[in-house]
Amino acid sequence: MYYFMRLTRSLEERLVAWYRQGRIPGGVFRSLGQEAAAVGSAYALGPDDVCSPVIRDLGSMLVRGAKPPQVFRQYQGKAGSPTRGRDLHVMFSDLGRGYLGHIAPLGVMLPVIAGVALSFKLNREPRVVLAYSGDGATSTGAFHEGLNFASVQRLPLVVLVENNGFAYSTPTGSETVIEHLSDKAAGYGIPGVSVDGNDVLEVHQVTRAALEKARSGNGVTLIEAVTYRRAGHAEHDDQRYQSKDEIAEWERRDPVTRYVDRLVTEGWADPGKLADLDHRVTSELDQAVAACENDPLPDPGTALTDVYANPATAEPLWYRSI
Amino acid sequence: MATGAARSAAPPAGLSRDDLLKIYYYLRLTRSLEERLVNLYRQTKVIGGLYRSLGQEGESVASAYALRDGDILSPLIRNLGAMLVRGAKPVEVLRQYMAKATGPTAGREMNVHFNDLRLGYLGQISHLGDMVPVMSGMALSFKMRKERRVGLVYLGDGATSTGAFHEGLNFAAVQRLPLVVIVEHNGYAYSTPTSQQTAVARLADKAKAYGIPGVTVDGNDVLATYEVAREAIERARNGSGVTLIEAVTYRRAGHAEHDDQRYQPKDEIAEWERRDPVTRYVDRLLADGWARQRELTDIDQRVISQLDQAVAECENDPLPDGASALASVYRTPSSAEPLWYRRV
User: Which of A69, A101, B139, B195 is most buried, judging by how many CB atoms fall within 10 Å of its CB?
Assistant: First the structure.
């Protein structure tokens, strides 16, 4: 799990560097400070389970086997990306590895995921879906409809709400009245539990228990992982609504630092081993960057491929003839 | 029941004897008006469906009775009783159901889909739950203008599963708006029983997810419902925010007259008939000496003759003229030639 948290953080640091060089079309939405919530939970999934990440769950996708070159190509919109340059950042699926690309409007994945879970139940497969959500998304109609349906149908679903304190610039206190988002579970007749989202071991343990509950036919659990996003909504966000003291406070509770401290203190890993992992991550990312940095962008002539059956391709500047 | 010595106990909840009789009048008017509509429906004089509130009149009338002038009500399809309490006229309701050109929407909208903002009720959007964000907006305007007015919005058990309900209620709650939300839990969303709708034990439990109080009340106990509604309305008026009320009741006439109710067991319907809100209210008034049988019978007669007059007044009103189909739809053309749509 240390490897995946380090990989997530370092990969995003490379993306930030590119972003500042103007080499990323679109935004970079970091998960700085939230890596434990994504990695710890995804690490509890079984091989045939499915997860539904949202924008700050790069960590969960890496745990499931997404490869850094794929992520780099997505962010740079390369022709060889998993979506052939048509979709950005982490919006790509790999059903073989068990993750779905997300739909950007928040909450919308809940009904989709409920459908996936329903198929598992109807097919009597011992598989579970883990759906991620933000705090703001819990106020959306789609979240409500999807979760209510999954709950009353007792589907094999675990919902992990990453409460990082803000929906863009809206603090959670202006979002909804209740303080602990796990209390929203009462509205669906399911259990809700809050965990320290920056404690990767606690996240892992609670998620694993919820997944097994779902797997054994005992329905949905809502987990609230309390965490914080230190890099704002995105790289283009100046975070003026986040006080520097608050950010500093949460830096002191950084999930990676805490985990390292724990591993070393308990004698579960020695610093040398962790440093080796850091090197491994660095060289892996170096190789990944080298592998795709100069890959081509999509050819405009292919703009209509996979959009229409006919024409399957379009001439350059085709739209000017409309 | 005995008409002997009246009890010295005062009627509950600050109601006067006069109020109690008025409430009875509205209960009886709602039920009898719907019975007339059923007759007209069977004569094919009603255009569209007929969605009775048989068995639910108690909570509809009682809750609306707790509103004050200036408050705004958002009724749903089974809240004819609430609309009548606010002052909707039977003749208008009849004209709506019969799609008469002389009706409040000039024959363009059906059944109870009509407004009177002066009297204080909105016409509903059919899609359940949709009125919650709308009424949150109304309540927001009251708060921003510092008016001591309250919004009251109804919805059904099924509507609590909708996204619109969720978004509207969460917003109203976090903004502490002067809004009261009444869930009329009548056991079914069309043919879906509540047990297949949602996993909570009590619909009032859903309030916890919004950080607001949730109250369950016997919706077929007129006075209990009145008290709970009044308390919530006054809480809202005093700036203490939203309350969710679950009024437990039952719809004995199915989803609509075109519904054969095959999914409702006959003994379940019979059981709820024994708990009929109007019968229970009458029994209470008489037993506690707050009304005499004669007064109630007089009201029954009054209702009958009021409805007779209303039906006579509008039964032969014309339907809308086809050429006026586009009036109030587009600015131009403001009228349409016959079969205009064939040219589109």
Answer: B139
Please report whether residue B11 resides in a domain: no
- Whole-angstrom Cα distance, residue B42 to residue B257? 9
Which of B162, B171, B208 has its CB closest to that of A187? B208
pLDDT band at residue B2 using 50, 70 and 90 as cut-offs: very low
Task: Please count the structural domains in chain B.
Answer: 1
Interface test mutation site (partner A, options B136, B169, B170, max chain A beta carbons within 10 A): B170
- For residue B234, is it within any domain? yes
CA angle B321, B325, B331 (to 5 degrees): 130
Query: What is the ipTM, given to two decimal places?
Result: 0.89
Task: Report the run of H or E that residue A167 belongs to, with start and end.
Answer: strand A166-167
Q: Residue B81 sits in which domain range?
A: 17-326
Top mean-pLDDT range of A65-69, A296-300, B329-333: A65-69
Within 10 Å of residue B17's Cβ, how many Cβ atoms?
A: 15
Distances (CA, A) of B60 to A265, B30, B81, B209, B227: 65, 10, 5, 25, 13
Contacts of A161 in chain B (CB under 8 A): none
Residue B184, strand partner residues: B156, B247
The CATH number for B254's domain is: 3.40.50.970
With beta carbons under 8 A apart, name residues in chain B contacting A106: none
From the list B105, B139, B147, B106, the residue with the least C-alpha distance to B124 is B105
Looking at every residue in chain A, the average pLDDT score rounds to 94
Asked whether the whole model's pTM tops 0.80, one would answer yes
Q: How far is CA B302 from CA A224, B4, B107, B314, in A?
A: 59, 24, 28, 19
Q: Do A176 and B208 touch (CB under 8 A)?
A: no
In a domain, B89, yes or no: yes
Asked, for residue B213, whether it belongs to a domain, the answer is yes
Contact list, B206 vs chain A (CB under 8 Å): 186-187
C-alpha torsion A119→A124→A126→A130, nearest 10: 20
